[in-house]
Design goal:
This protein is α/β, with parallel strands linked by helices. It has 2 domains: 4-96 and 291-309, NAD(P)-binding Rossmann-like Domain (Rossmann fold), CATH 3.40.50.720; 102-282, Rossmann fold, CATH 3.40.50. The chain contains 13 helices and 12 strands. It has helices at residues 13-22, 36-42, 59-64, 84-90, 102-118, 120-128, 157-168, 183-186, 195-199, 221-226, 244-253, 272-275, 291-309; strands at 4-7, 24-26, 48-51, 71-74, 93-95, 149-153, 172-176, 190-191, 204-207, 231-235, 256-261, 280-282. A 7-stranded parallel β-sheet has the order 8-7-6-9-10-11-12. A 5-stranded parallel β-sheet has the order 2-1-3-4-5, sandwiched between helices. The longest helix has 19 residues, at 291-309. The radius of gyration is 21 Å and the shape is globular. The structure holds (2R)-2,3-dihydroxypropanoic acid.
């Protein structure tokens, strides 16, 4: 008999095909969002759960999961939606999908940098609205990206991939992390242990650090003020890293010239202040959204579950 796998959302066809081949897979063909109560109901008789970032696996939910559940794999690199301590206490192994999404997510960071600096969103809206009257010497003048300074907060895999891409655009890369990277990983990027020294070096600030309590509202009014006037900020990490009220105030005062966001605090809700701002480029959490990346994420999540159920330690172990 195949082990039973609960899959909380619809996954790419190739991933569902493998899940169905190897498991008695409970899929979600309608792709309906699952509440914690839904997950508990559907987890009866299940050996493992393949969940997604929008699922809330908090301590109370994990505490009530059937004893049979041995593994939770999230279809994401981020795992702040899973109560790790509660999982550990229950002996449930948690895994995620690192590495395979770094390039796709860094591409979206680059897209936001280019669109925010070169006013891509405004231009696109103007053309679509039929409001473009033709080329003029002063229309939608932006900021050249090449040869500016890019600050990366969170020099993990996604940050390093962004640094690699930024090099091709002639950006000088600075980064702020808990620790400096070994030289072979840092390459030309310059480390700043101190956030004030780091922020003073950023014409463009990219947020690529994990979400969670430690980074909640990291970019607050104090740190925004440490950026040079006219700086551009992009966020492909988690919406929780930005204090939206402080960011909107900085955008309104002109201290921040433009913002590019792929993630939002409390998403899918988006702070209405951003919607009203021409200088905000807003994407719907597209970071890892390529066919090859989403397939790879699904396969990696399944690899993790396969390993746990076979009594091995998964390569993508979180706890
Ligand atoms: C992740 O993997 O954490 C992303 O946000 C989803 O692409």
């Amino acid at each position: 008999m195949k082990p039973v796998l609960l899959v909380t959302r619809r996954l790419p066809a190739a991933v569902e095909a493998r899940a169905t081949r190897d498991y008695d897979a409970r899929l979600n063909a309608a792709d309906a969002p699952r509440s914690p109560a839904d997950i508990l109901r559907l987890a009866e008789g299940v050996d493992a759960i393949l969940c997604c970032p929008a699922d809330r696996l908090d301590a109370a939910t994990i505490g009530q999961l059937p004893a049979r559940v041995r593994a939770i794999a999230t279809f994401s690199v981020g795992y702040e939606h899973i109560a790790l301590e509660a999982a550990r206490a229950r002996g449930i192994v948690v895994c995620n999908t690192p590495d395979v999404l770094s390039t796709a997510t860094a591409e979206i960071a680059m897209l936001l940098i280019l669109a925010a600096c070169r006013r891509g969103g405004e231009g696109e809206r103007m053309v679509r609205a039929g409001q473009w009257g033709g080329w003029t010497p002063t229309q939608l003048l932006g900021t050249q990206v090449s040869s500016r300074r890019l600050g990366i907060f969170g020099m993990g895999r996604i940050g390093r991939e962004l640094a690699r891409m930024a090099g091709a655009f002639g950006l000088a890369v600075h980064y702020h992390n808990r620790r400096p990277l070994p030289p072979e990983l840092a390459r030309d990027a310059r480390y700043h242990a101190d956030d004030a020294a780091f922020l003073a070096e950023c014409d463009i600030l990219a947020l690529t650090a994990p979400g969670g309590a430690e980074t909640r509202h990291w970019l607050d009014a104090r740190r925004l003020a440490l950026l040079a006037r006219g700086a551009v900020v992009v966020n492909v990490a988690r919406g929780s890293l930005i204090d939206d009220a402080a960011m909107l105030a900085a955008l309104h005062s002109g201290h921040i010239a433009a913002v590019g966001l792929d993630v939002y605090d409390g998403e899918p809700a988006v702070n209405p202040g951003y919607l009203a701002l021409e200088r905000a480029v807003l994407l719907p959490h597209l970071g890892s959204a390529t066919v090859e990346t989403r397939d790879a994420m699904g396969f990696l999540a399944l690899d993790g579950i396969d390993a746990v159920l076979a009594g091995r330690t998964p390569a993508n172990l979180v706890v």
